Amino acid sequence: MSSTFHVRGGHTLDGEITVRGAKNLVSKAMVAALLGEQPSVLRSVPDIRDVQIVGELLKVHGVKVERDVESGVIRMDPSAVEKAHVADIDAHAGSSRIPILFCGPLLHRLGEAIIPDLGGCRIGDRPINYHLDVLRSFGAVVDKREMGIYITAPDGLHGANIHLEYPSVGATEQVLLTAVRAEGVTELTNAAVEPEIEDLIAVLQKMGAIISVQTDRTIIIEGVDTLGGYEHVAIPDRIEAGSWACAALVTKGSVFVRGAQQKPMATFLNTFRKIGGGIDISEEGIRFYHPGTPLKAIAVETDVHPGLMTDWQQPLVVALTQADGISIVHETVYENRLGFTSALNDMGAHIQVYRECLGGSSCRFGRRNFNHSAVISGPKTLHGAEITVPDLRGGFSYLIAALGAEGISAIHGIDLIDRGYEQFREKLTALGAEFWED
Ligand code: EPU
User: Fold this and answer.
1) Which amino acids bring their CB within 6 angstroms of ligand 1?
2) Annotation: CATH topology of 23-233
3) Could you check whether the bond before residue 116 is cis, i.e. omega within 30 degrees of 0?
4) What pTM was computed for the model?
């Protein structure tokens, strides 16, 4: 059983931390290495559990993985890719959603792929229908079996015209990782264009792929016969940077996030500034700080890039509990990413959730039974409570709430945060937080 994480709130977070590569790029760039004939080297790899999981999955497929955790360098040699034993794949069932992205590369390398039951955060239904449709468009045959999904490509993989009904990040990556070595040209419309996807495209281009992104979210991929290795420095983790920014605001502190970059965070920075948060941007990173005056309520909605990332929503909601007035948050990416607010109410927040689309445009969850809008009245003094981490970002948000609360909080399931926040305990210590585990 995992330990309980106790936080004595009320300390101002003050100091500097560093963010390294983005979880949501690093894991995909590691999968891309499978496509090459030569070894690849990825730098700025964070020490998080998702990297370990993807590394293990590469190893069971015969990729030689060498990782230096401290320097953040990972070297992957795919020259001896082989079929994995079902039991070895199954050992990773439920641990992450990344295995679904192994399909294209494995089909190219081995002619078949076995995908275990997927995991990832429970923040909605999180189906894989787009992924399977994409694979079928390339000519793959999908067979759902008891041990997972068995995928083959009896006639090879061929370029396709694909339109996504929603610009899904994962489905876009599925197309990229499959199309680069499929025969012929693939045209993907309504693609996701997140900075992590741009970075994955950069990785694939280094390997020899031909990919062009047009202004209207169309991506054209011209398939090539072989790909080589790559050397790449991962884009910094803008979700982690935004999470620490919110922690600075809630604890009335000041945190310099070394490595944070302005451009991929532009929408977050606008939102943070509208709330009243202070920002100093430099080449080395961004300092986020509480202004010393009351924070302002705002209305926001999450969206695909260049909109406000859904992954920033949960930390921002905690910050808005401290803003003066009524804030509205409309979550349009996931149907069920506001459940974490009930524990914040137990801590003294005043947050009501609604099924209606509030404060912005109507979204695809509008007339369905999902509580996907929140109205937050603030400022409210938070007090310590006993809470359980529901998912990665929700968990970090509880940590932020506990840091800003009066008294002691007991947080269960803190290990989930290790999936995506590198050495957060060390960072908390560096910033002056008071916590202990038993
Ligand atoms: N969706 C479907 N069918 C599919 C795939 C997605 O209906 O086959 C729906 C999802 O249920 C969701 C929406 O489409 O409502 C968008 O999902 P998307 O595919 O874009 O998300 P993802 O690729 O599964 C990645 C990140 C998430 C991040 C989202 C959105 C990774 C490993 N995960 O997920 O990150 O929230 O994009 O930006 O890259 C996190 O880091 O905590 C996290 C959840």
Assistant:
1) 23-24, 27, 97, 121, 124-131, 166, 168-171, 192, 239, 309-311, 333-334, 392-393, 420
2) UDP-n-acetylglucosamine1-carboxyvinyl-transferase; Chain (3.65.10)
3) no
4) 0.96
